[in-house]
Amino acid sequence: MPLSDEAQDQIIDRLRAKRSEPDNCPICGSDTFSVADLLFNTPMAEGIVQTVAMPMYATHILVTCTNCGLTHMINANVLGIMDILLEDGVARGLIPPPMEATIRADLELRAARLEEAESEAG
Question: How many domains, the chain?
Answer without folding.
Answer: 1
